[in-house]
Amino acid sequence: MEDYNNVDEMKNEEVEIEETDRIDDVDNAETDVIVQDDADVDVAITDEESESTDYSDGEEETPTPVEDERDGYVEEEVVNSKKKIKSNKSMSKKKKSIIAITVSLCIVAIVLSIVLPVVFYCKPRIFVKNADQFVAGDKVGELGDYFYMLDKNIVCDSMTLEGEDVYSIDMNKHSLTVDGDFVVNSSKSGTLFIGTRKSDDEYTSKKASLKAKNIRITAPNTDIVIMADISCESVSVTAKSLRVGSFMNGEFTKMDMSIMAENVRFSGNISGSATSIIDIYNAKEVLIDSGVSITNTMQLTASYLNASVSSNLATVMLDDLSRASVAGTINNAIMGGAQVNMQNGHSCNTYQDINTLVIYRDTKKSHLIKNCKNVIYVEKLVRPVDINIEENGNRIFCNAAGVKHAVGYKLMINGEEVSTQRGEQNTRFDITDYVKNIGTYSISVVPLGDFTEGADLTDAGHKTMYVDGDAATVEYKCEITLQSPQNLRVDENFNLQFDQVLHADYYLIFVDGAMVIRDDITALSEDLSIYIGSVGDHSIRVQAFSFNENIYNSPIAMISYSTTEALEAVDPEQLSAIFKNDGTAINVTWQGIANGYEYIVYLQANGDPNTRIEVGRTSVIDETGAIVYTINIEELPEDVRDIYNPESDSYFDVYVVAAEHDYFTQSAESVCRVRMPAVIATSK
User: Fold this and answer.
1) Looking at residue 470, what DSSP letter applies?
2) Quick one: pLDDT at residue 622?
3) Is 506 exposed, middle or buried (CB count within 10 Å of its CB: 0-12, 13-18, 19+)?
4) In b/e form, how buried is each residue of 431-453, taking b as 16+ CB within 10 angstroms?
5) What pLDDT score does 50 carry?
6) Nearest to 672 by CA among 572, 599, 585, 592
7) Residue 106 Cα distances to 43, 118, 496, 571, angstroms
8) In this structure, what DSSP letter does residue 435 have?
9) Are the beta carbons of 565 and 585 closer than 8 angstroms?
10) Beta-bridge partner residues of 191
11) DSSP structural state of residue 270
């Protein structure tokens, strides 16, 4: 095989530089300069210039005077002729100087054109102009020792790279078109790049394309990076890892992929038809880069999918060993999987047959959940509604309003975490040792949730979990004042009580930041029902004051109080259930309630509580506020179906419960009864 432009055998290219210098005011002569590698510089000067600059023995030639009848004419002719000779001589020197500079620049450019690629691309290049030249020949070495470089667009019937002929391919902004199969078989280790080369380890799809009917790569020890724009009918890859750029339909409307690799990364769009399938096996991670769109169905076996923010997938199918974490959009559905974590900001319409579904709750979106064993909703804890600093004796405390569902709180001072405490109401931190020096401190409290990203929740059941909320922050300055009111407490009748502060003359009571009551020193109990009776978290503050101008008012003491409300039960008058005409399903209909979000549907046969099962949940409500939920008889457990006999006096009781969320507790049950009509039972 002919080896093109190897570093050891560089091609001796001829570089021709043409320079034309026209001087109209002298003789309109053209000067041409031709420079070749290792060649002398030839300067061609016109005949007229040669005559005017021809000297003997280093002296100027004196022109022969022309006689004329007029006196003085001969002398004037001689003078003018000398001026002309000097002018031509000066012009010739100027042109030689320009030529010398131009030649120097050309030589530098030629040297740089040879040296810079060798310095930048340290690995030898094997130039190829056709498919037959993809043979390394005597270039035996590791995968990264050489690389092929396309010298032009290449079209061939088929192409197979194997054995010692496998090296990276620099598309060099060209295209490789294989009418049949493009095959790579290798046992080499390292990284195989296909694309336009930017550096030793960076390739791009810019102006580079690979088209083949089928792409077959078997390289179990190799990291494969294909960054050309790819068009093909099918792809089969067995590799250590695989990263690919854009796949385009082109003439292939259906494009299937089968990939077996430890790590798979999609960095560009894939636009196969809806029936095209991407099968991936045994991948520790399948990463979908941000902004990537894939219209093929993606099917994973014993793999983990990580879809980045702004990614867009059509349909995802997972086997029982696969998991997924999705922060982007799934247009159709995600089905199957041991555990699927839908990140905050995700989008998907249907979740089906998932063992454990973890999903951020969004009351502005609706979704359909079918046959998912464990459904875990994730919410972000709210920011504590209040935070303050109080002094008690010689101790200084930071006290934050409790946040419902928090499992603990984190204390931060000047941006650094200093302490963590567990418990929903354990919001009081002793900060004395952290604020000893005079100055201003930024004190923050962060409510902690019970949800940890990546935790195994396969047996968690149906529940709501929470991520950490935003921090509440206050500034603290050290000052000696009245002691903060102590032992603030609210009883079951919304009465606030606290201990008297020594030397205090009166107190101000604040609810949710607004001052509502001024108390004298004898009234240490106040009815706050009109202020904290509404649903939600409330902050209650008390501050002690003195009429003595030399006694400063106390820091504010604060407690929090969470007011909850039970959801109303679904109106039994608007709850109905009816068998479909063929008896295969029960349609349950009811009207949504105020503040309701999700509803749980239970089924019980023949009044036997042992047969009671949860059949599903829904949050899908139409524009009229009506809800319809379908119970498929064939999806019920066999023992429940066996109990029910449509030909006897059997029946089902359907229970509907409004599920707990936010500050609303679960409603009471509403129930209706359904029997299969006799005409359907008889026809069966």
Assistant:
1) P
2) 82
3) middle
4) beebbeeeeebebbbbbbbbbee
5) 37
6) 572
7) 15, 19, 92, 92
8) S
9) no
10) 223
11) B
- What does DSSP say about strands 329-336 and 33-34: parallel, antiparallel, or unpaired? unpaired
d(CA 427, CA 609): 42
Global confidence as pTM = 0.54
Block residue for tokens 């192409």: 159
Total residue length of the chain: 684
Rounded to the nearest 5°, which phi and psi values hold at 106? -65, -40
According to the model, what pLDDT value does residue 11 have? 36
Q: Residue 85 is encoded by which pair of tokens?
A: 């000779």
Amino acid letter at 171? M
Q: Would you list the DSSP string of 170-236? A: E-TT-EEEEEEEEEEE----EEEEEEEEEETTEEE-TT-EEEEEEEEEEEEEEEEEE-SEEE-SEEE
Q: What is the helix (H) or strand (E) element at residue 447, kind and residue range?
A: strand 440-448
Q: In whole angstroms, how far apart are CA 500 and each of 16, 508, 520, 555?
A: 101, 13, 10, 14
Cα pseudo-dihedral 246, 249, 253, 255, rounded to 10: -30
Residue by residue, DSSP assigns 321-379 as T-EEEE-SEEEEEEEE-SEEEE-TT-EEEEEES-SEEEEE--TT---EEES-SEEEEEE
- Rounded to an integer, what distance in angstroms lies between the CA atom of residue 567 and that of residue 660? 8
Residue 556: per-residue pLDDT? 92
- How far is the CA of 387 from the CAs of 69, 224, 475, 476, 628, in angstroms? 120, 54, 10, 11, 45
Instruction: Scan for tokens 């029946």, then name that residue.
Output: 651
Contacts with 502 (C-beta within 8 Å, 6 or more apart), sequence order:
482, 483
CA–CA distances in Å: residue 478 to residues 86, 419, 440: 95, 20, 8
Chunk the chain into consecutive blocks of 10 residues (it has 684) and report each block's average pLDDT, rounded to whole numbers.
Answer: 38 35 37 34 36 40 42 43 46 64 70 49 81 86 89 93 90 92 94 88 82 94 92 92 83 79 93 86 95 93 95 95 93 94 86 93 82 91 92 88 94 93 89 84 94 83 90 84 90 89 91 87 80 90 88 91 90 92 89 92 91 90 88 87 78 93 90 79 53
Q: Are 531 and 512 in contact (CB under 8 A)?
A: yes
**Phi and psi, residue 670, nearest 5°:** -120, 145
Q: What integer pLDDT is reported at residue 53 of this predicted model?
A: 39
Structure tokens at 676: 């299969």
What separation in angstroms does the CA of 454 have from each of 30, 280, 325, 409, 450? 78, 21, 9, 21, 12
On whether the CB atoms of residues 227 and 205 are closer than 8 A, the answer is yes
**CA 554, CA 397: separation in Å to the nearest integer?**
13
pLDDT value of residue 249: 64
In the three-class reduction of DSSP (H, G, I as helix; E, B as strand; rest coil), residue 137 is classed as coil
Q: Please name the helix (run of DSSP H) or strand (run of DSSP E) that holds residue 397, with its range, or none.
A: strand 395-400
**What is the rounded distance in angstroms from the CA atom of residue 525 to the CA atom of residue 437?**
37
Tokens found for residue 459: 């047996």
Give, as one character, the DSSP assignment of residue 661.
B
Which residue type does 553 have? N
